[in-house]
Design goal:
Layout: H1 2-20, H2 36-47, H3 67-78, H4 102-110, H5 130-141, H6 161-169, H7 189-209, H8 213-218, H9 222-227, E1 230-231, E2 236-237, E3 240-241, H10 247-255, E4 260-263, H11 271-284, E5 291-294, H12 313-319, H13 322-338, E6 343-344, H14 369-385, E7 389-395, H15 416-421, H16 424-432, E8 437-440, E9 452-454, E10 461-463, H17 470-480, E11 486-488, H18 495-501, H19 503-513, E12 518-519, H20 524-536, H21 542-558, H22 568-574, H23 582-595, E13 597-600, E14 615-620, H24 623-636, E15 643-648, H25 654-662, E16 666-671, H26 683-695, E17 699-704, H27 710-713, E18 720-722, H28 728-738
Parallel strand pairs: 1-12, 4-5, 5-6, 6-7, 7-8, 8-11, 14-15, 14-16, 16-17, 17-18
Antiparallel strand pairs: 2-3, 9-10, 13-18
């Protein structure tokens, strides 16, 4: 009698220990050395908060599972929200309100998860058998019979024959080597955990195959759901650049259940390495693949060494050719897709109407809303044709600002009519044409949302940026403009967010406002836990998270991310025919050459021409840039017997440059203005050089390599061209124009009237 009492007492005490260690965090168990076969399942279910240990790293895998424990595990999986409510009635006569699992057994009875005995008892502390395990799990998960052959010789006449058949025909349970199942044998904690793991993974896979995202989400933990809404960067780990799947990256993917990652040039060595990296990251992602994104705008914002770096959006703007923009989008998409990347944070739909904009500039197609919309739609179409998602930016428009949101908080004070007519126009067009991802701007738009909060940085009153504004993202973007795709934030590392709002509060604000994916949280672990807590305490409604995650899962499915058929060897073998191919390079050259634009010419048609035997001085603010131009000039004019010399211009170097240029027959004067306020650029030095060359009636050309606003700030330029970038394709095209081998046929895509200086 005493032995039986001690057994029951031990089972109850064990139940209490399991409950005491339960729910929230994944345990690291130290006693699984004899249960390695079950380690993956135990770890998986512990992370889900379904099973727990007994403290001090003990899981006790060989201990039998009681009937009470088994239904508790299922209730935690399927009805965890009801655990916060009071128990209502008990069906079973032998389960008293003092039982540690009284609530769980009541919930299980209510939902028909488990059955009792004919005499009205449940036997909560009795070990559960293998037959009962099959019965409980098939009832809990509504499983149907599968197609795998079943050859168990001791189950046909058993009361649990049907559930055992269902489980075994789906490959969820197995027999012993002698062909038996031994249905009445008790089940250990390790076995029960593995059975549950198999069922959950089976159900998740069935949901994925059926594209039933609601069903899949019902099997995703809160951690997994909010993890889908995070896309961190992975630039470094332990002080080393991340170019392979290291332990830090593995932990980040698994611990935070990440839905995506953004790559930067630091992560990329060459095309084979990045393809291997993206493949290996997807292998770590489990049954839900990652969004892998990158900023490949072309021009000044590029990431792929050895890839085709197109001349940039403003160069395309100068061509005005939508078909060429579509081709550019398509070849960019082909290269990204080959590298294992599915999201391109491009095109830029900002209208660069302010020459003093320090961050957009030549990243924009131009200052005309219709031009930006037309070429933007073409670029999106080209990307889409290759199965790459265009994430257009920066909504509602970053073009007319004089502050870089990486460094501060820009405020756009235009009224709503102006926003509709200009800034919003390309975004409206993109939405009407089915754009599927839009990036928000960390810019305040008082005409849409004039809410202010106290800055954590300095205690001042600061306006809410679009990224954190429900009026902008839900009210304007979703409700007014009818956008149904994914909203992704701009980087949370940028000061406009980081300094004023504090990351954790900003993350909650952004998701509450309507953001589906947080890009580059400063502390991914903290952002993840903040969102988990916000869902659990009701700050963010669970249905908001579900709506975002469903959009994400649907998009991943639409773009084939769940199809893992390509192996790494196939991907690597295909690279050489795509990345930087001659066909792509031809397009690169065509854009660059058609973009070259005459800023000034003595005859109104051509820049000054370089002639046979000229002594040519190349003057630039950067010696490397001057050397690049010199090299390209020598290659392109190898039959002109030119003599070349370079000189560097800038503060304190003007007189020396003048002395060198004094002996020249021809001067290439290169200017590059980008990532600064144009009106504050060092134009005085350039004006001094231009005035002296004009006085000497010297042949020269001002070559604009950056934002093409020189004619606003410089007077009496007699010869000038714009090439919209200092990449080799752009500068080579400019050199051709100076040699008379190319007509400067581009059209300046930005307004440069004197009224533009004030940004009006």
């Amino acid at each position: 009698m005493q032995v039986k009492f001690m057994t029951i007492f031990g089972a109850v005490l064990g139940s209490m220990l399991v409950w005491a260690g339960s729910a929230a965090a994944e345990a690291r168990f130290t006693d699984l050395q004899h249960s390695k076969w079950a380690e993956d399942g135990i770890t998986y279910m512990a992370k889900r908060g379904t099973v727990a240990g007994y403290g001090n790293g003990r899981f006790m895998p060989e201990r039998n599972v009681t009937r009470a424990q088994s239904v508790t595990f299922m209730v935690r999986e399927l009805y965890s929200q009801e655990l916060q409510q009071a128990a209502k009635g008990m069906t079973y006569s032998d389960v008293q309100s003092t039982h540690p699992f009284y609530l769980e057994i009541a919930i299980a009875a209510k939902h028909g998860l488990a059955s009792g005995f004919p005499d009205g008892t449940f036997h909560p502390d009795a070990p559960i058998s293998r037959a009962e395990t099959a019965a409980f799990l098939t009832r809990a998960y509504s499983l149907a019979e599968g197609k795998q052959p079943v050859r168990l010789k001791d189950t046909a006449q058993h009361w649990a024959a049907a559930p055992i058949l269902i489980m075994s025909s789906n490959g969820l349970i197995g027999g012993y080597t002698d062909g038996t199942y031994r249905p009445d044998r008790p089940v250990t904690r390790a076995e029960f955990t593995v059975f549950m793991t198999r069922v959950i993974r089976f159900e998740r896979q069935a949901a994925i195959q059926a594209h039933d995202w609601d069903k899949l989400m019902s099997y995703m933990t809160v951690s997994e759901q909010v993890g889908q809404m995070l896309m961190p960067d992975i630039r470094q780990w332990n002080g080393q650049v991340t170019t392979t799947v290291n332990d830090g990256l593995k932990r980040s993917i698994h611990d935070h259940d990440l839905g995506g990652l953004i790559l930067f040039d630091k992560n990329i060595v060459d095309m084979r390495q990045v393809t291997t990296l993206t493949h290996d990251m997807q292998m770590e992602s489990g049954d839900i693949p990652l969004f892998l994104g990158i900023d490949q705008e072309g021009g000044v914002v590029k990431r792929i060494p050895g890839g085709t770096n197109l001349p940039g959006q403003m160069a395309l703007g100068a061509t005005g050719d939508a078909a060429l923009a579509e081709t550019a989008g398509r070849l960019t998409g082909e290269e990204l897709k080959a590298l294992g990347l599915q999201v391109n944070f491009a095109p830029v739909l900002d209208i660069n109407s302010n020459p003093d904009n320090p961050i957009i500039g030549m990243r924009s197609f131009g200052s005309n809303a219709d031009l930006v919309a037309r070429l933007g739609l073409a670029s999106i179409k080209g990307l889409r044709q290759t199965g790459v998602i265009a994430a257009v930016k920066h909504f509602p428009g970053h073009g007319d600002t004089a502050v870089d949101s990486h460094l501060g908080m820009p405020v756009l004070n235009h009224n709503r009519e102006r926003l509709d007519a200009v800034e919003l126009k390309p975004f409206k067009a993109a939405i009407d044409n089915g754009v599927e991802m839009i990036m928000t701007a960390h810019i305040a738009f008082p005409a849409v949302d004039n809410e202010h909060v106290i800055s954590l940085k300095d205690g001042s009153s600061v306006p809410i940026p679009a990224t954190l504004s429900k009026k902008v993202l839900t009210g304007l973007l979703r409700d007014e403009l009818g956008y149904q795709g994914i909203i992704i934030s701009d980087a949370f590392t940028m000061d406009a967010i980081a300094q004023h709002f504090g990351e954790n509060k900003a993350v909650v604000r952004a998701v509450s406002a309507g953001v589906d994916i947080i890009l580059m949280p400063q502390d991914p672990a903290a952002a993840h836990q903040t969102l988990v807590n916000a869902v659990r305490n009701g700050t963010i409604p669970a249905e908001n998270i579900h709506a975002s995650v469903k959009r994400i899962l649907e998009m991943k499915s639409k773009y084939g991310l769940f199809d893992r058929s390509d192996n790494l060897a196939q991907k690597l073998s295909a690279l050489n025919g795509v990345i930087g191919s001659e066909e792509h390079r031809k397009v690169e050259r065509e854009i660059a050459e058609r973009a070259v634009t005459l800023l000034a010419g003595r005859d109104g048609t051509n820049p000054d021409q370089i002639q046979q035997g000229d002594r040519v001085v190349i003057a630039a603010a950067d010696a490397e840039q001057a050397k690049q131009l010199e090299k390209q000039l020598i290659q392109a004019a190898n039959n002109l017997s030119l003599k070349t010399e370079i000189t560097v211009i800038g503060q304190g170097k003007t007189n020396a440059a003048l002395q060198v240029m004094d002996k020249a027959d021809y001067v290439i004067l290169a200017s590059y203005q980008f990532r600064n306020v144009a009106s504050q650029f060092g134009w005085t030095d350039y004006q001094t050089l231009i005035d002296e060359m004009n006085r000497q009636n010297k042949r020269y050309t001002l070559v604009s390599l950056g934002n093409p606003y020189e004619t606003i700030f410089l007077k009496n330029v007699r010869s000038g061209v714009a090439v919209y970038g200092k990449q080799e394709a752009n500068t080579a095209a400019g050199i051709k124009a100076l040699l008379g081998k190319l007509k400067a046929g581009g059209v300046l895509p930005v307004a440069t009237g004197q009224s533009m200086v004030s940004g009006h």
